[in-house]
Write a structure and sequence with these properties.
The chain is of the alpha+beta class and about 850 residues long. It folds into four domains: about 220 residues, no CATH class; about 160 residues, no CATH class; about 210 residues, no CATH class; about 130 residues, no CATH class. It has 27 helices and 22 strands. The strands form two sheets. The protein has a six-stranded mixed beta barrel. Strands 13-15-20-17-19-18 form a six-stranded mixed barrel. Helix 8 runs antiparallel to helix 17, helix 9 runs antiparallel to helix 13 and helix 15 packs across helix 17. It starts with a helix and ends with a helix. About 0% of the residues have low confidence. This is Putative ABC transport system permease protein. Keywords: Cell membrane, Membrane, Transmembrane, Transmembrane helix. One of its GO terms (cellular component) is plasma membrane. It is found in: Cell membrane.
Length: about 850
């Protein structure tokens, strides 16, 4: 084989321009651009997080505690290591305005700050004023600021009064932006900002109430944050301290962006797979048109390896061009859309050109191009020159020899391996790869089934006399038709959309269908022990209340298991991440199901015992008789596991991982929580009476919390849908390419039909019916494959019931029919205008 000769042949072939390769380039460029754009946006957000980590966090480092303020030893360590310290108290409460029947209330996330806040950044207020002025006392009444949405909900204007607990505040300004809001995590209500000392008489920070303190530290620039973290955790981790620093100022956002970005890249791979189908079809069509050239080259003595290398070089050069176009588009799009993207983010992203995501997209593009071009190239290499001419007539097909099949398999493995490695979500990447392979196999079989059914239907009695329909069925079922390419390209794009639609619909219906049957109306926190009796009297005597459940509540961190550090004993588990709710009970409640062991006697006063959630215990490998140490309010309590019990968190009711015997927690300050199951018409009066009698308690409407979560999930679904639309766009490009490639055949068909007496309307109807049949078939197959994927994700990932959603399914079918109709009819005008004589004479 002569590479010089092969290169010369490839160079001369490329002089003919890009005719026949427009679809090839478009498919490859779109797939690469989608992956590059998603990766670039993710890199921009990560760069913004890294740049603004200290501002987002509110300091260079943060130490946080639940249920308590830092003790003397902890404050002394902070003073020793930090140049400045800002103490922040964060909790949920009810903002109340008015009195009597005119009283209005709304859930708010309260942040109590000191004079050092914010260490970095600036709080933006409207009207513009210094924060010290906005939060200062006027005539003994402290100032407060709140977000605009909360003020509008309560009908407040600057100067009006509102209450938090038993303390009255004056609204001095609207909070337009707080610099560290991205680092504060998920909140159920809009923000209210006040001075911490102004909350002293509010009854909201009593011992046992649920609040969190955060100490933001400003440290010298030369400080080794990793060494500082290790020292703090060694000293205070077992006392319930949690650490964060500016290296990951907003871990929730960072994790969310990373996972969503990785998932969108995997969705982009589906688009690249669709593009691969178009790439393969374009290469096959191009080589079909080069049969005579290949035959001549072989006749003149060119070896099959030389011809193979020549066309591989040519397609390789075009692949590089397509990848380059995709990388340019993927790099430029985020820059152009930066103002729109930045407006929807809770932080400033640093948009720019990032080599990493572009290199990742180029790897995906190169492997995909090689994977989908090797098969048609290998097939041409194995065919002799004489059979090339016969193949043009007979249309025979055979598999490439085993070496090329093995190479194709290796390329597929390499592509999946890159997805597993680069996405960082190995399991999901493997599932996506398996889904794509399965979908392609199902779509291929479906295309063959459609052709078979069309052939049988064309001979059916019912279609006789309906010429356009019969011709369309014959064309779909005949050899060399478009069924396979259309069903594969359009079907895979529609499959991704169908799966997203089914998952989104089932997620929403699960919220709307399942939770109202079991979820409480309100989740009430911070009920003080001396308030519990009066609280229960009001709630239990209300005829609109069907059920009320209460439980004492503390917060604790599991620090040791069987004498070993907890993570060393059982590894990483979500139960060990931060503090967990802890309760106590002399006897199991009526709704408690003990699965193993025995509950302690009602009057038990011996060494501490604990009942552990059964499912979590199994995941952690815990056994009856194991000892766990829980730090509660700085005090270590070591208890023996004497029973396991079922805990169902999906009901939105009360559920605790840990339940101890009462004497184990004797003397520990705590509050109670409650869930109230009430009729909708009783909710308003119930909340009003409880708020008046107990201003310190916070009632969270469960439906509002669910709606807040639904908003987040809707944003995720929207992002995934946009990624799926990119896949569909690639499928439409392939569809247009298939329609364009079949234009010459349609011209000949039109000429023949006109010769035997068909008029334009009949021919147009034939083309339209054929396109609609293929689009409908692609849509139906997509519904099946997408429904199967939706069932798998809903059942095994979301762990909820799956119900087929017909509306999105009908839209998928309608979209498939419309897409093929538009593409088919767009290339029908030249065949309709062609003169039969000139067309048939050219065939002589």
């Amino acid at each position: 084989m002569s590479l010089r000769v092969a290169a010369r042949i490839a160079r001369r072939e490329l002089r003919g321009g890009l005719r026949g390769f427009r679809v090839f380039l478009a498919c490859l460029a779109l797939g690469v651009a989608a992956i590059a754009a998603v990766g670039s946006v993710r890199a921009a957000i990560e760069a913004g997080l890294a740049r603004d980590g200290a501002v987002l966090l509110g300091g260079d480092a943060e130490m946080s505690f639940t249920y308590r303020f830092a003790d003397e030893a902890e404050r002394a360590w902070m003073d020793q290591n930090a140049d400045a310290i800002s103490e922040v108290v964060d909790f949920r409460s009810m903002a109340v305005v008015g009195a009597g029947d005119d009283e209005e209330r709304a859930l708010t996330q309260v942040k109590g700050v000191d004079g050092a806040w914010p260490i970095y950044g600036t709080a933006e207020l409207s009207p513009d004023m210094p924060l010290d002025e906005a939060l200062s006392d006027v005539d003994g009444q402290p100032g407060g600021v709140m977000q605009r949405v909360l003020a509008e909900r309560l009908g407040l204007e600057t100067g009006d009064a509102f209450r938090l607990g038993t303390q009255t505040f004056r609204l001095t300004a609207l909070l337009e932006r707080e610099p560290d809001d991205a680092g504060d995590g998920f909140g159920l209500g809009p923000r209210t900002l006040v001075r911490t000392e102004a909350l002293a008489n509010s009854s909201l920070l009593e011992p046992g109430t649920l609040f969190e303190t955060r100490y933001r530290l400003k440290v010298p620039q030369s400080t080794d944050l990793e060494a500082m973290r290790a020292d703090a955790q060694q000293r205070f981790r077992d006392a319930g301290m949690r650490w964060r620093d500016s290296r990951n100022g907003a871990p929730g956002i960072a994790a969310f962006v990373d996972r969503l970005g990785a998932f969108l890249v995997l969705v982009g791979l589906a688009g690249l797979a669709v593009g691969g189908v178009g790439v393969s079809a374009a290469v096959r069509a191009y080589l079909e048109g080069k049969r005579e050239v290949i035959a001549v080259l072989k006749t003149l003595g060119a070896g099959t390896r030389t011809i193979f290398a020549a066309y591989l070089m040519q397609i390789g050069a075009l692949s590089i061009l397509g990848i380059a176009l995709g990388l340019a588009l993927g790099a430029v799009l985020p820059l152009l859309l930066a103002p729109f993207i930045a407006g929807s983010l809770p932080l400033s992203a640093e948009f720019g050109i990032y080599p990493g995501p572009l290199a990742e997209a180029a790897i995906y593009g190169g492997l995909t191009a090689l994977l989908f071009t090797l098969w048609p190239l290998a097939r041409i290499e194995e065919v002799r020159a004489a059979s090339l001419f016969r193949d043009a007539v007979s249309g025979t097909r055979r598999l490439p020899r085993p070496a090329y099949l093995a190479a194709t398999a290796l390329l597929a493995v390499a592509l999946v391996g890159c997805a597993v490695w680069l996405s960082g979500m190995a399991t999901l990447a493997l599932y996506v790869a398996a889904g794509l392979v399965g979908s392609l196999a199902l779509l291929t079989m479906a295309a063959q089934g459609v052709r078979h059914l069309a052939r049988r239907a064309a001979r059916a009695q019912v279609v006789r006399g309906r010429s356009a329909l019969r011709l369309a069925l014959g064309a779909v079922g005949g050899p060399g038709g478009e069924a396979t390419s259309v069903v594969l390209s359009l079907g895979l794009g529609l499959t991704v959309l169908a799966a997203v639609g089914q998952i989104d619909a089932n997620l929403r219906s699960a919220i709307d269908r399942d939770l109202p049957e079991v979820a409480p109306s309100y989740f009430v926190v911070d009920i003080q022990p001396d308030q519990l009796e009066g609280f229960l009297t009001r709630v239990e005597t209300d005829p609109g209340v069907s059920r009320v459940e209460t439980a004492p509540m503390l917060r604790g961190i599991i620090t040791r298991i069987n004498g070993q550090p907890a993570r060393e004993a059982v590894g990483e588990h979500w139960v060990l991440n931060g503090d967990r709710g802890v309760t106590y009970s002399a006897q199991p409640t009526a709704r408690t199901t003990v699965t193993a062991g025995e509950w302690w006697p009602e009057d038990y006063a011996g060494t501490p015992q604990v009942s552990f959630a059964a499912e979590e215990a199994e995941e952690m490998g815990l056994q009856l008789g194991d000892e766990i140490t829980v730090n509660i309010l700085g005090r270590d309590i070591t208890a023996e596991i004497t029973s396991f019990r079922e805990v169902d968190f999906s009901t939105a009711g009360i559920g605790f991982i840990l339940s101890m015997n009462p004497s184990a927690l004797a003397g520990a300050p705590h509050s109670h929580i409650a869930t109230i199951y009430a009729a909708p018409e009783a909710e308003a009066a119930l909340l009003r009476d409880l708020a008046r009698a107990y201003p310190n308690i916070t009632a969270i409407r469960v439906r509002d919390a669910i709606d807040r979560v639904s908003e987040v999930l809707s944003g995720i679904a929207a992002a995934i849908t946009y990624g799926a639309m990119a896949t569909l766009a690639t499928g439409i490009v392939v569809l247009i390419g298939a329609a364009a490639a079949g234009e010459r055949v349609r011209i000949f068909e039109s000429a023949v039909l006109k010769t035997v007496g068909a008029v334009r309307s009949q021919i147009l109807g034939y083309f339209a019916i054929r396109s609609a049949l293929l689009g409908g078939a692609a849509g139906l197959v997509a519904i099946f494959c997408g429904g199967l994927a939706g069932w798998a994700v809903t059942t095994f990932v979301m762990e909820t019931d799956y119900v087929f959603e017909p509306v999105s399914a009908l839209m998928i079918v309608a979209g498939g029919v419309a897409a093929t109709l538009i593409a088919g009819l767009a290339f029908a005008w030249r065949p309709l205008a062609a003169r039969p004589a000139s067309v048939l004479r050219a065939r002589e």
